[in-house]
């Protein structure tokens, strides 16, 4: 639990990740120090030659508030479902469905391996956690539940989990570009445009967590991975993903943490005082920003934990001399803001995102406006039955990052308050700016696409609502979506399984409220032969049908019945999928 997907270090720093809860210290996977040093101490009041004021005193813009419910305390609407309930939980060994390959990371609780799904061929990362090494299973459950709750372009996605008597396995999206730490170690320093782009992405992820009352508590370069190999994209356009929620905690806005945890090189002064809140994460990002710009940590080469803690508590940050001579005032200004010792004065993540230096950061632009076609997709999605909506969101999680880049960029451009969601006001604004006529029922349409009733469109909800319907014809991905509901691998989805995926038990495990969906109504809409079950042919026809208006015709062809018999006889459903696809 709580170990990142970081690669093993050739040499380790004595300053490890620390925790005073759940059985004492938590070993890190190694935190090699960047080369170079800087003295600790002296004045932190570097000045701007333009204003003569200390950089840390220059005005910080105000942030924008989150719209909609907080995910950590979400009340799911009647007839809706929480997106986290679509993360399947399986009893048994992960090897039953995945072929495990080489390690991409290893820690005190287990290893992270590259894995390939036997049914679809999709690549994933599988984190294996030994039960015997976990001091408190409830903390592991909370780590999993937080990963199920979060839904953001810059946070790694949890796909499913497996459990047996000895191990817990977390199946996540595979980030093939390695750690941010590795790139820092190789490059020594990044250019300001690259650093600004990465800092902006990290702040977007952290702001999303904070706006939804979740604190990460172990932010460091090892816990940010590049989504794709860097030889496939330019440095400025690379996508970072936040991982490792082992120390994460749901926290109300007037609450404080008192547990000493995190990685000593990056923890805030108030964490050492054992009374801290969300802004401790902001400090950690400030240390990373300092490191990316200068190639050095603010604490230099200190190797003794006691001296390092003393330096962190003093909080003296120097940005004079050395690499800092060529760094802009705006960049230094943000460094000093993020590394402000007093958390009351330190900005929130949402404020930092409004900083001038980040506003000029390169963004991943593909297209930046909605089209009439997108509005048509939204309307069609709103008319789907709940099972098809849920299955569509599962489809989104199965698609490789390369197939959703355009929609991801559109989502982030529409999210003008940077809270990781699209509100009704933002949707109206985007439609107005693109010149698309605003539908009369735009508010109703928004409600139909907002599956959990949060009041906003989450990332996956948005992707599912505007995704090209041609994706529905990818038989391997459709099969993966079907399997998400066919919990016992019988080849059918029954009432009990619909309850298991969409019911209140799953919500309660994530700490959410709300009423359960009417699964009988869903079953009646899709079960065309009225046998109380949904087989893959019925599921397939539901997904590829157009204009069904929340119902599916109740006709069963002789071909479909024959295919069902073949599926039950051979157990090779993918062969059946291919046949169905050919006949449609």
From TrEMBL:
It is an enzyme of class 2 (transferase). Its EC number is 2.7.11.1. ATP binds at residue 127. InterPro entries: CDPK_Ser/Thr_kinases (IPR050205), EF-hand-dom_pair (IPR011992), EF_Hand_1_Ca_BS (IPR018247), EF_hand_dom (IPR002048), Kinase-like_dom_sf (IPR011009), Prot_kinase_dom (IPR000719), Protein_kinase_ATP_BS (IPR017441), Ser/Thr_kinase_AS (IPR008271). Keywords: ATP-binding, Calcium, Kinase, Metal-binding, Nucleotide-binding, Repeat, Serine/threonine-protein kinase, Transferase. It catalyses: L-threonyl-[protein] + ATP = O-phospho-L-threonyl-[protein] + ADP + H(+); L-seryl-[protein] + ATP = O-phospho-L-seryl-[protein] + ADP + H(+). It comes from the Eukaryota. GO terms for molecular function: ATP binding; calcium ion binding; protein serine/threonine kinase activity. Its cofactor is Mg(2+). Residues 402-437, 473-508, 514-549 form the EF-hand domain. Residues 98-358 form the Protein kinase domain. Monomer. Belongs to the protein kinase superfamily. Ser/Thr protein kinase family. CDPK subfamily. This is non-specific serine/threonine protein kinase.
